[in-house]
Automatic annotation (TrEMBL):
Residues of the signal peptide: 1-22
Keyword check for Transport: no
InterPro entries, alphabetized: Ice-binding_C
Sequence ranges assigned to domain Ice-binding protein C-terminal in this UniProt record: 230-253
Name used for this protein in its record: PEP-CTERM sorting domain-containing protein
Length: 259
């Protein structure tokens, strides 16, 4: 293989590998499809992270409140609406619900009045925690993760724990009408596994009030960091290879014939 061809192939490999991941933001909100409640409106904009016009992934489920709910490998777009290659799987023991919150009437109403619930009470006993997993992330990379929890009952706490058990934070809503860590969101720096996954477990903590009952609630999430980019189509890669080879041949110097 000539030095020029080797150089071209090296540039091709670099072009295909460049930006395999880039810093970005993925926004997720949970809601209800309706049943006896008003369907959740899709939120647009920033919250603790992000800016005006950011697009959110709305994951809505029926509000049946019975049995296990969940879905696997939902493809997520970033805040600009572009495909990311990142997916979300979740399994809870409840569905989306829609209630009033301290943020009703504010720009964050569409984001914070609907939520997934898990670890609720049936006959006084817990029906189990919820588990959510992002996949397709950069292996071993650090991410900024925001977890929103604004329950319909002030004092109802939710404990969020990382899949490896190294991170744990309780969010206990107390009626604040602005974002306050510990009162309506958890704020983590979390490391993806070597398989490119981040897992969150949501479970209940005891209620500080005598009304209502314990339950784990999750309104939405924001994940910021190295977001996987789309892999070039095979046809695009082939065209790039042909173009680079043609460019190399065009600039190839003619060899002198022996006299």
């Amino acid at each position: 293989m000539s030095r020029r061809v080797a150089t071209i192939l090296a540039w091709l490999s670099l072009a295909l590998a460049v930006d395999a991941s880039a810093d970005g933001l993925i926004d997720v909100q949970f809601g209800t499809q309706g049943n006896f409640l008003t369907p959740t409106a899709q939120y647009s904009g920033g919250a603790v992270l992000g800016n005006t016009g950011d697009q959110w992934n709305l994951l809505a489920t029926p509000t049946s409140g019975a049995g296990s709910q969940g879905t696997s490998d939902v493809a997520l777009h970033d805040a600009a609406g572009a495909a990311t290659g990142v997916t979300l799987s979740y399994h809870t023991t409840g569905s989306g619900a829609h209630f009033s919150s301290p943020f009703t009437g504010s720009p964050y109403d569409a984001l914070l009045t609907s939520y997934l619930f898990a670890d609720s009470e049936v006959g006084g006993a817990s029906i189990g925690p919820g588990v959510l997993t992002f996949s397709g992330l950069a292996p071993n990379a650090n991410y900024h993760l925001i977890l929103y929890s604004v329950a319909d009952t002030p004092g109802r706490g939710t404990r969020f724990t990382s899949g490896d058990g190294l991170l744990s934070e309780v969010v206990r809503p107390a009626g604040q009408t602005s974002f306050v860590e510990g009162a309506n969101y958890a704020d983590w720096t979390i490391k993806a596994t070597r398989y490119g996954q981040v897992t969150v477990v949501m479970s209940r903590v005891e209620n500080t009030l005598t009304t209502g009952f314990p339950e784990a609630n999750l309104n939405g999430m924001q994940l910021s960091g190295a977001i996987a980019a789309a892999v070039p189509e095979p046809s695009s890669a082939a065209l790039l290879l042909v173009g680079l080879l043609a460019l190399g041949l065009r600039h190839r110097k003619p060899t002198k014939s022996a006299s």
